User: Fold Solute-binding protein family 3/N-terminal domain-containing protein from Azospirillum brasilense.
Amino acid sequence: MRFPTAYAVLTVAVLLAGLMLPQPVQADAPPPTGRPVLRVVVIDHSPPFSDRDAGGGLVGFNVDFGRELCRSLGAVCSFDAAPFKQIIDDVAAGRFDIGFGNVLRTPDREQRLLFSIPYWRSSTSLVGHRGMPELSLEEAIRSRRVAAIRGSRQHAALVRLADADPKLQSNLIPVSTLDDLWEAMRSGQSDMAIGPTLNVVHFLLSDSGDGFETIGTPMSEDGLGGTVHIVFPPGQHELKASVDRALTALRNDGTYQRINRSYFPFDIY
Assistant:
């Protein structure tokens, strides 16, 4: 399947993506007496979910929605940003109270974290230079160098394939961030990249994505897609229940949809 234009990329992502997938910043104003203080972490540079504006402030879907959640909870929140894997480790260790890490629910993560009700759905897409033949994930890792973010579900899927055939290890190019993912392709370090579909679409619609396109159709099987959750430290059941109620209320009063429309032309819930 080809996606020769930005409009086609976005349209196919809507139909097939399973729709529906930083550094410390200054805290909000000091809390009045009696208001809870919550430490919130988002992914470092994962547009359109989180990024930094020209002044260094955090922006993006997760940031806007996180602030609305805090308002609904009556809490004052400080927002930090960290790489994906660090978010899981830091929330599990209690260094943050709430994690917006675009985290899929898996049995191993359930041993370390509490999960909110779903707040959007994700899938996975391969991306490569325009004109590249359609490839399955296994065909891709067998014939191309494929970059993936270390610690992600996409990386884990490629590791499983490479472990079954040691000759494929050299075709797996682990990177640390989304920027590194796209740069690996642009620099020739990798032939392809694999990442969450909504991040892929955002890249393809940007100037940096010129000359690239999705390869094949989005994937959601084998842990490559599913419901995305807010995460909490183990034992924080009361906080989880409060966030679940607030999330439901923000869906019911239209706040979620308003923020959604600021970043996506379709409902990602």
Remarks:
- Confidence is low (pLDDT under 50) at residues 1-29.
